[in-house]
Design a protein that fits this description.
By secondary structure, the protein is of the alpha/beta class. The chain folds into two domains: 3-45 and 172-226, no CATH class; 62-170 and 228-361, 3-Layer(aba) Sandwich (Rossmann fold), CATH 3.40.50. Helices cover 37% and strands 23% of the residues. It has helices at 10-26, 31-40, 46-49, 62-65, 67-83, 101-111, 116-119, 129-138, 211-215, 228-241, 290-299, 310-316, 319-328, 332-346, and strands at residues 29-30, 90-95, 120-125, 146-149, 160-165, 174-179, 182-190, 196-204, 223-226, 246-255, 265-268, 271-273, 283-285, 288-289, 303-309, 355-361. The strands form three sheets. Strands 2, 3, 4, 5, 10, 14, 15 and 16 form an eight-stranded mixed β-sheet that branches. Strands 1, 6, 7, 8 and 9 form a five-stranded antiparallel β-sheet that branches. Strands 12-11-13 form a three-stranded antiparallel β-sheet. Helix 13 packs antiparallel against helix 14 (332-346). The radius of gyration is 21 Å and the shape is globular. Mean pLDDT is 93; it is low at 1-7. Bound molecules: S-adenosyl-L-homocysteine.
């Protein structure tokens, strides 16, 4: 662990001071603004200033657990491209590529299949300059040109295939609290001990919420989470789908239907931490509400498939056959690592059930592989 990743880094302390200044001047700040600053502040934000992923970082993700994950997502993308009529060119984009491992594994699998690589325009959507550098290194020998964009809206026009693993969970959430028969924005203020603490903020008009949130009879203090940036991502996909075929595979951890509950969590060095301590130094995420994502996509005229458990997705995409093939040429030690990695991806007790996959596509293409029917 380098000093830059120490939870009491100078950057984190300075971000704390800046956030407190903002609160003193403007009053309590919403959880969404707090989370956004912690994750994205240009100098001290978690993603712009840290290399968080992997055994030496704060958390580990599916592509870092096993190469098979990215390879199978590559095969999924190939089959989708074929189902679109093998358009040329096709934009092959990844949202939030982390260390670039998923894309490297996907491209390696795609190199072995005819046609795709030659006509794919590979684009990574990444806001962190630091992680862009890491991705550049990981993908230096990937055999095809890569370009970067900061925002999904800036992707080149044309038929589009998108993959995104643990991207949505990193987008800021709003939390609203059911208190005394009203919804209130959950905010962050400065507590008596000088640290940050949660508090209730302004009343939120219930007409602005999804219908199921309006209708529920909820216990006092229930928390509902809303993710405006995820809706914006879906809206950007929908804009694209109006012009050319589109398919996106979103894999993340979360729940299938909208539920109340506080899922904001901080992780540091593979352990849970306090989300209100050390802003910018710890990873902040919250469960993905796949129900809300589905509603947002369908409201924009997109077709939604799933979500289905990550384990089921990978098994249907041929995980066992791929594992057997890899084991053929492996040493015993490598074989053990391959088996334990792939097991972790599909095991219901590990990542197999909590992580889910949802496909979002334009209505004019057939159901994507591993998603027989539209939801
Ligand atoms: N997909 C990777 C990494 C997930 S971590 C993996 O599976 O290993 C989240 C990633 O999303 C990081 O690369 C982070 O920098 C990026 N990110 C976070 N917010 C973003 C945003 N608003 N736009 C683009 N990328 C973002």
């Amino acid at each position: 662990m380098t000093p830059a990743q120490n939870s009491h880094s100078i950057e984190s302390t300075l971000l704390s001071v800046r956030l407190k200044e903002r609160i003193v001047r403007g009053g309590p700040m919403s959880v969404e603004r707090y989370m956004d600053a912690c994750l994205s502040d240009a100098t001290a934000g978690y993603y712009p200033s840290k290399q968080p992923i992997g055994a030496g970082g704060d958390f580990i993700t599916a592509p870092e657990v096993s190469q098979v994950f990215g390879e199978l997502l590559g095969l999924w993308s190939y089959a989708v491209w074929q189902s679109m009529g093998s358009p040329e060119p096709v934009i092959f984009a990844e949202l939030g590529p982390g260390r670039g491992t998923l894309m490297a594994d996907a491209l390696r699998a795609l190199q072995r299949l005819p046609g795709f690589i030659g006509c794919a325009d590979v684009v990574l959507v990444e806001t962190s300059p630091l992680l862009r550098g890491v991705q550049q290194e990981t993908l230096a020998d990937c055999g095809t040109g890569i370009s970067w964009r900061e925002r999904i809206e800036a992707l080149p026009p044309g038929p589009l295939i998108v993959i995104a693993n643990e991207f949505i969970d990193a987008l800021p959430i709003r939390q609203i609290v059911w208190r005394g028969g009203q919804w209130r924005e959950r905010c962050v203020r400065i507590g008596a001990n000088g640290g940050f603490e949660f508090c209730d903020g302004p009343v939120v008009a219930s007409e602005s919420l999804r219908r199921d949130a309006q209708l529920q009879q909820l216990p006092e203090s229930s928390i509902l989470e809303i993710r405006p940036a995820a809706n914006a991502t879906v809206a950007a996909l929908a804009d694209r789908a109006r012009q050319a075929p589109l398919a996106a595979l979103i894999v993340d951890y979360g729940h299938e239907a909208t539920e109340c509950g506080d899922t904001l969590q901080a992780v540091s060095r593979h352990k849970f931490a306090d989300p209100l301590r050390d802003p910018g130094a710890v990873d902040l995420t919250a469960h993905v509400d796949f129900g809300a994502l589905k509603d947002a996509a369908e409201a924009k005229g997109l077709r939604v498939y799933g979500p289905k458990p990550q384990g089921a997705l990978l098994l249907e995409l041929g995980l066992e056959a791929r594992l057997e093939k890899l084991c053929e040429d492996a040493t015993e030690e490598q074989r053990d690592a391959l088996v334990s990695g792939t097991t972790r991806l599909v095991d219901p007790e590990a990542m197999g059930l909590l992580f889910k996959a949802m496909a979002i596509a334009s209505p004019d293409i057939p159901p994507p592989p591993a998603f027989g029917q539209s939801a």
